[in-house]
Amino acid sequence: MRTIGKREVEDMAVGAAVLASGGGGDPYIGKLMALQAIDEYGPFQMISLDELPDDAFVCASHMLGAPTVLVEKVPNGMEGVGAVDALEKRLGRKFDAIMPLEAGGLNSLLPFQVAAAKGVPIVDCDGMGRAFPELRHVTWTLFDIPACPAVVCDEKGDVVTVEAVDNAWAERLSRNAAITTGGSVFMADYAMTGAQAKKASIPGTSTYCEQIGRAIREAHEQNVDPLPVILDLLGAFELFRGKLDDVARRTEGGFVRGYAHFAGIDDYAGRECELRFQNEHLLAKSGDEVLCSAPDLIAVLDIETALPITTEGMKYGARGVVIGIPVHEHWRSERGLEIAGPRYFGYDIDFVPVEERVVESANEQ
Predict the structure, then answer these.
(1) CA 128, CA 124: separation in Å to the nearest integer?
(2) Which of 104, 124, 194, 228 has the most beta carbons within 10 angstroms of its beta carbon?
């Protein structure tokens, strides 16, 4: 068991925003909620999957909806707790620990606050290894673990229990509840045993987020360029450098959908790069050339600081580095690509691992 204090939370928030692939909810809001929880409950207790007993009972805690909504609909801090309370009541059993649903933005840190309020530890794992747009986009789905019963809770205390036939329908029904209540809700779902969590989760993601954020912070403290450090730590690839000259976002169907266009600078002068996103970045192209696609991660880092720029934080004139990060091997399986590959999101291309695309592009040049 590890004790997580304010310094760890600060680093984790930065790293989570990198792995969020542009989405996952505003990491600043998640950080503030976590820091306030430390003031109220003391440092967090985090356990590894190995420390989790096989017969433990755990669930995921997270927000669902459009990230841009959080700018005006700021959480009051108790929605996630209310959802877990309601799920415990529905199942007639208390949870022994709480898990993050995804490694990204707000949803990486929200579960810490919920776990502290419930007096239980947080598990150092998640169900994505990144952020994805939909509730069903978790490795738990790949291992046939049901999301339901699931509980949806809003800031007013409204509670909806979802009993769906599968995780795809759990996403649809929960998303409609989010739309009805103003664009975002908090949820508790994917109740499972410790044995199931060990088999189906991605281990160590909270610690990984912390390592990423710490690497960026220490690079700044040592006055060195953090980008090479981050690329090495992530096993990632620089795909493009440019100035943001066009961005369009719309909140539709409970998602933030849109595109961002970069005009190349430095070695990329004369070229262009376009990103397509649905909460998270799903496709990066330069002209007709695909640079990276889901389920691999696409992140935009500030060219000076290497701090991540979220989809809702993109502004005209921003200078960014687009990087591609290999995703966990679970998502490169046949079933993983079926529910999270480019064709699932409507892009008529085959998935090619980002490391192979980079080699192909280098050979062509």
Answers:
(1) 13
(2) 104
